[in-house]
Design a protein that fits this description.
Radius of gyration: 57 Å
Helix content: 40-55%
Structural class: alpha+beta
Oligomer: single chain
CATH class of the largest domain: Mainly Beta
CATH topology of the largest domain: Glucose Permease (Domain IIA)
Strand content: 15-25%
CATH superfamily of the largest domain: Glucose Permease (Domain IIA)
Order of helices and strands: HHHHHEEEEEEEEEEEE
Number of helices: 5
Number of domains: 2
Shape: rod-shaped
Distance between the termini: 131 Å
């Protein structure tokens, strides 16, 4: 509905009155005065106008409508209505501005939340990478410790094999210093050797480079492949100078063939002859095994001349 001759609708007027109340409640109720457009008076003897504002604040928006609708003339009514309408438009703009600012803040908050999620994901990824790096470092440390321990074990094994070789040489020299030994040494060995096992040579005689210890070591014999328990044959006839166990060679048989020639059979699984026994060529004297410092079943075979190892390949 439109107020006659004013062009102002009741809906616009009611909205303005509600906003006028919003403006009013932000003022000091004890000192505030109605604005001129609402017919405010500075003295308290007016027709309720001086004391009206505090009561309007307590009684609600109905009194604002009565102020406008209770205008004494059309001119006052129009002035008051225009003032309320102005407040309404200003407040509506303010609400839109607040909404726009709120939308900006919400967008900014969403961006911050996204960044926070990204940072959290980066932190988790970094923590996982650091944990993985620490695990790799720990594995490397353990492998290094194990390598050092294994290196020490290998060095001890090689040293023990060298000590066994020296013990064999010392035993042969001691045997050769006896009357029987001197007599056997004077008898020239004129026979020939047969193969001690049927397998092929897997590691030759001479210096070879150790891949772990990174140094060369003298291999005093040849390694011959054969299955566990395979028979080991005496390459020639002779007398058993030693049949027993050594730390490096494991179970070993040493045969003196005379003329300063002797043969050694190491890493045996079983010994079939004893010290001082006479053996003939081709006799089974032991079984293939992996005793002592060995990584698998095979025969370590040596030929010695006057106690010193020589290459057996030319003799087989």
């Amino acid at each position: 509905m439109i107020w006659p001759r004013s062009g102002i609708s009741f809906g616009s007027l009611a909205g303005g009155l509600r906003l006028c109340r919003s403006v009013w409640i932000g003022r000091d109720a004890n000192s505030a005065k109605w604005p001129w457009c609402c017919g405010a008076r500075s003295n308290a003897r007016g027709a309720g106008d001086g004391a009206g504002p505090p009561r309007n604040y307590r009684q609600g928006p109905v009194r604002y409508a009565s102020v406008v609708l209770g205008s004494r003339s059309m001119g006052v009514f129009v002035s008051r209505a225009r003032f309320v309408s102005t407040i309404f438009r200003y407040d509506a703009g303010l609400v839109e501005a607040v909404r726009a600012e709120r939308a900006v803040v919400l967008r900014w908050k969403e961006q911050v939340d996204n960044k926070a999620r990204d940072v959290a994901a980066w932190k988790r990824e970094l923590a996982e990478r650091q944990a993985e790096k620490a695990a790799v470092a720990e594995r490397q440390r353990l492998v290094l410790i194990e390598a050092h321990e294994r290196r020490a074990e290998l060095e001890e094994e090689l040293d023990e094999l060298d000590r066994d070789s020296d013990r064999i040489a010392a035993r042969l020299h001691a045997l050769g210093s006896t009357p029987v030994g001197r007599a056997r040494r004077l008898v020239r060995f004129s026979g020939h050797f047969i193969r001690p096992v049927a397998g092929r040579i897997t590691s030759g005689f001479g210096g070879r480079f150790h891949p772990i210890l990174r140094r060369y070591r003298m291999h005093t014999g040849v390694d011959m492949g054969a299955g566990h328990g395979a028979p080991i044959y005496a390459v020639a006839g002779g007398v058993v100078a030693f049949s027993g166990t050594m730390r490096g060679y494991g179970n070993v048989v040493l045969i003196d063939h005379g003329g300063g020639i002797s043969t050694l059979y190491a890493h045996c699984s079983a010994l079939l002859v004893g010290d001082g026994a006479s053996v003939s060529q081709g006799q089974v004297i032991a079984r293939v095994g992996s005793t002592g410092m060995s990584t698998g079943p095979h025969l370590h075979f040596e030929v010695r001349r006057n106690g010193s190892p020589v290459n057996p390949v030319g003799s087989l």
